[in-house]
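Hi D.,

Good news: the full-assembly prediction came through. Inputs first.
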Amino acid sequence: MRILGVMFYASILILIGLSMIFFGIALSFDRLQPQTIEYINNFLAFIQDNPSSRVVAILSGMLLILISFSFAQLILGRFQREKNIAFRTSSGEVTIALSAVEDLIRRITGIMPEIKELRPDVRANKKGVITVDLRVVLKSEANIPELTARLQDITRSKIQEVLGIEEQIIIKIHVTKIISPEEKDKRKRDLEKEEAAIPFGGYGRI
Amino acid sequence: MQPEESRTDLGVVKIHKNVIASIASLSALRIEGVRRIGGGLFRSGLAEIFGKYAVPAVRVEISKNEEVRVEIPLVVDFGFNIPEVANKVQESVRSGLEKMTNLSVKDININVQAIEKPQKEAK
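Then the structure:
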């Protein structure tokens, strides 16, 4: 079914692309046959004159949109289903979306004040190994090895505590930027200056 | 959606799948740590357009031998142990369905889609 969905989108896009190329080439070389233009004109005139064909055109458009939505849902649903951590209980299966784990890690920013921004990317392989890639922006020039080790520990323990899993968790940290306090102050001052520079225009004239 | 049917001395009692989904949804929401019932933008959006706002994304399947399978997408509050919450939801849904409909529940599948800040913290 997924292949069918992908084929549906691919064929529609190819059709649109081909017709655009065809018209582009035909128009640029002035090779568009008068019969073709007449045929298009006749077709449009037929739709305009015939009320039932207008209804058919509208209905087919709506049907196409509905089919397109269904395929999109199908494809996205399948992709989403693959990005899960799953385990079985006596009552059924529990799946946890990896995006939910990412949400969880993002909340750690609140625990560690040194972190300005945290962008997690969580992957899980078939062996059950969870790999977490963290891209962090640090607030001050803190001791990076100590801070990153702490972040790794907190992330690992938080995942294990909340998800209740014992599988191996690999945490990779990439420090993308360090914002110094001076930089922050400078930005604040610049912002204040900009705000102050706006002249007051008065409340209006009578 | 095909309604679940049972015969009594006086006639037939039909339970619509939406009712099963509603019971499952309400039973899940009673558990501490469950923020809301999830569901993709498309599914819950369309469901709302067509008036099925009460059961946004709970999927119900009934097999030929009258066994019910429920799939519940959940959004869990930050700070709660997910397997624990999922277990409690499964138990609550099972007891809720069995108590209210007398149906035998085969599987209650939980799909944790997101983690959000609890209401108090968010404010």
